[in-house]
Write a structure and sequence with these properties.
Elements lengths: L9 H12 L4 H13 L3 H12 L6 H18 L5
Length: about 80
Amino acid sequence: MANGRQLQGRPEELIKQALKIAPENPKVLQLAGTAEFESKNYKQAIVYWQKLLEMTSGNPELAESISKRIDQAKALAGTTAK
């Protein structure tokens, strides 16, 4: 939040460290996907969010939200592959 609501720079570095420590943590995956999306690395954002989506079976609202982000990233990446 202190970085102008952007994840580039130090926040992104911390997210990468968190991924090394807890690669299956849902919050880390969400943040990693968002950081990649902000950096226009849409395909990598999809990878993180796809992994997160697999963890949301008990929360249909969250699954729908993640699916929308994945669809948006796919459109921006110019791909329709699942």
